[in-house]
Amino acid sequence: MSAPAARNRKKSSKRVEKKKTSAAAAAVAPPAAAPDMSKLSPSLKALINAPFARPGQAPAPRHIRDVYTRIAHEARERKYGQRPWVTLSAAATFTLNSPASLLALHELVPSLTDGALPPLTAAELIREIGLKCISFNGIPRTINCLGAFRAGLLESSSSGVTAEDLARRSASRAVTSDNATAVADRGRALWRSVYTPFDEKLVSKLADSHPDLPVHILGSHYGPLLSDPPALPVNSENNGGAGGHPPPPAAVVGRTLTSVVAIACLRAQTGVGPQVLSHVFGLRKGVEQGAHRDECAAAAASAGSAGLEAGSEAEGIERLAADEGCEWLLRSVDAIAEAVGASYAQWEGEVAEKAKL
């Protein structure tokens, strides 16, 4: 065998031996430790909470009370009623993710409504508005805002609301085998009320986008959430399908106030002009159908709401649905958005500045 061939054979033998050694080592080596999924790296935590991502809630601007007070005074001057201005203010504030501003609003409502909405009724109305905001803003903001709102009410000795007050409420919107058909029918009726005469055509158009889109909108929103359970005696076995304790009538966000919630949420979130337009027409259709009159009468008759007058409230909603009223509604939402948005920008800037120090 020539010298070069011998050297090549020797090298090949070494490579084979090295592979065998590596394989043997791998066979006896312990497996690599799995990463600890219960902990996050500092860099990942920092990225989640980066100021530019606005991870927190907006603080209450210093002048937010002035903004709400001006809206309330304008509503009185224009005779739009008590609950509509509270509804648009709360819905816009939920959308802007500012529970601190919601607490300021709650503190003002009893005096700005001349006692028509006392502290507990005002709190329940704001909570009901927040619940319906889910359909327009998504779940997370409502979860966070309602949680912070409740905590703030209970922390304040001047809120006029106790944990015992809030504990009297229980779920009233559960869907069961006994009421599923009624809830579905209720949702369809609300859908027709808002979108007639295009309700069926719109369902088909939504299904073209995704076959389950109208199924989810009607079955998860218009039925169990945006429409209201029938008003039955407290603790009635069929109340809401689950024997729940509903809000007082003055805190029920009925057909026309639900349209006000929709307009305020969609206007404040921006970028959804077609939906704002649809719900402006939805508000007008609710007035045309007379839904507001029975709702205002029930609110006025409820205990603790002596300052609400059914006739004036109903006439106020009718004025609100007209051109001038809708313009005022939109501009009022814009004023809240401008106030809270400016505060948000300033707050994020302050956080960024502190991070540099």
From TrEMBL:
InterPro entries found in the cross-reference section: AhpD-like, PTS1_Protein
Domain of life: Eukaryota
Region described as Disordered: 1-37, 229-250
Gene3D superfamilies assigned: AhpD-like
Basic residues biased stretches: 7-18
Biased composition (Low complexity): 22-35
Record protein name field: Mitochondrial protein
Organism per entry: Corynascus novoguineensis
Phylogenetic classification of the source organism: Eukaryota, Fungi, Dikarya, Ascomycota, Pezizomycotina
